[in-house]
Amino acid sequence: MNGTDPLRPPTPSFGTVPRSALPVAARFGPWRTRMAWLLAWRNLAHDRSRFAVTLVGIVFAVVLIAMQVGLFLGFSDATTVIILHSRADFWIAARGTQNFEMALPLDKQALYQARSVPGVAHAERLLVQFGPWKKPGGGNEGVLVVGSDLNTGLAGPWNLVAGRLEDLRQPDAVLIDRVYMDKLGVSGTGVATEINGRRARVVGLTQGIRSFTTSPWIFTALRTGQRFAGLDAEQSNYVIGTFAPGADPARVRADLTRALPRADVYLSAQLAERTRDYWMFTTGAGASVLVSAVLGLLVGSVIVAQVLYATTVDHLTEFGTLRAMGAPRTFIYKIILGQAAISATLGHIPGALVAMALAKGSELAAAVILIPLGLVLGLYWVTLAMCILASLVSIRKAMGIDPAMVFQR
Amino acid sequence: MTPPTASHEPPTLPIADTPALEAQGVTMVYGSGATSVQALIDVDFAVRPGEILSLMGPSGSGKTTLLMILGGLLHATCGVVRVEGLSLEGLPDSALARMRLARMGFVFQSYNLFPALTALENVQVALELKGRDLAEGADLLTRVGLAGRLRNRPKQLSGGEKQRVAIARALAGDPAILLADEPTAALDSANGRAVVKLLGELAHDLGRAVVVVTHDLRIGDLSDRVVRIEDGRIVE
Predict the structure, then answer these.
(1) Chain A residues near residue B125 by CB distance under 8 angstroms
(2) How many domains is chain A built from?
(3) pLDDT digits (tens, 9 = 90+) for A40-50
(4) Is residue A24 part of a domain?
(5) DSSP H helical ranges for A138-207
(6) B21-234: CATH number
(7) ipTM confidence
(8) What is the rounded distance in angstroms from the CA atom of residue A136 to the CA atom of residue A138?
(9) Per-domain residue ranges for chain B?
(10) Residue B99 touches chain A, beta carbons under 8 Å
(11) Closest-CA residue to A68 (of A394, A286, A353, A246)
């Protein structure tokens, strides 16, 4: 025995030379992987029923994950929709306010204190108040009344599909969203009812302004809202406003905080984040949909892993043949990872289409599913990662083959 | 050495002096202690380019074990295998795989074709692995008489045609050595004869060193030498 050291051979040997001895095209170039991809595809397509099961599993996982993440996004959007659609730069609420919907009454003086702070261009009152809505056909429904200053329109309604904003200047006038017409027992504009025992009349409809809670938003003028709540003209639970051009928002906010020691001052994004975190995480509502999304990911991974593993086991002799022929490990990795990538891509496309169709169908429902393009693209990478992760067991199996098996009969 | 029979053409290439493949004192022991089994005992032989060597013997005599050791698929307990003068001893699996890829072609009894690929694609897999032009696949299949079957999948081919595809695949990249394990065992008489003829051409016309494990006397007759193994020892 000559004790050849493959790292330092006395003469050129297969341990050091062959890779470089192979033609350049053998080491580099996209076509080097052509047959690996072809084998990956044909191995999958060869057993069509099994491949169909794989794709159904991936589609199921993609739809489940997309629905749950889409619901999460829809819920998140619903929790902050009024705040982020307003043109207000800052929000002043009573100290300890946890979320937008449940603000405590604010000092009457807060408005004047805010206006006196340098850098504040404008400040006005806003009312957000729960109240009982008497359904015309009988029964009550909880609603969230938003009373805002119609002259500035800083936090007023949008997306009107019936009626005009000006109509809210009429006594007792309110706007409701089309999504909640059935829930509120309203067949159209002109319907009269009561909020908190006081007369209210529907003068217009909005489209797609959903509430995260079970209580629909009702838009009205500030003074009308105060009447519904039994408050006088100087009572509200928010003061909102805008900064003067060129003012430093952080500095003005700090000045407002000093000027209003018994209130909390938020920039719009801060109040939106606080409200979103409260509803999505403090209540556990967000966590439950995210857990469902993770479960979808796990179920999908298990299905894909099982099918890819079964496919690998079916083709063990072929992998053994490849290894006996001298195929590098990377070639076998490419086949199995190729199978994972093909499965992910072909499973993701119909999955994403189904999810987008369901999201489209949710536009008229109370709980909207938001599936933006970013989610579709991000979900592809999640699906790909899921399939690659699922293929690791198969790679381990394939690489554990003794190539001598091809001679053992 | 068994002289070539009169049934085939005389060699067009001379047999070189330097062995393409050489076994020296190869011994293989499976297990240890009282339960150990000696599969091969002190096997010596060499095969030169342009030569066919048949390994014959009863089942369980160690022929296939020897073929696996010659192909670098199994490490001998002791002894040396040299491929074109270079010892395989101590080489890691990755280097042995590169050696097989660069220097050897394999033909298996059960063909071991990729069922999902066409005949042409089966050959092209080997060509891609060896960094060769995929277009050579059609030439190789034409050379083994399958020009009209390029697009057929293995299940659409007869046993003899499958084995010829396997031979074309083994020839991809012009390997110096061809190792064949019972290449005619699963074939009928006519197909077996065609494969035997093809192996003869590969050795004698193209200068390959061919080692065949076989029970087929036709291959034995065609061979330049027949090595008989019984109980792990060369007996003839």
Answers:
(1) 35, 39, 322
(2) 2
(3) 999 888 888 88
(4) no
(5) 181-184
(6) 3.40.50.300
(7) 0.86
(8) 5
(9) 21-234
(10) yes
(11) A286
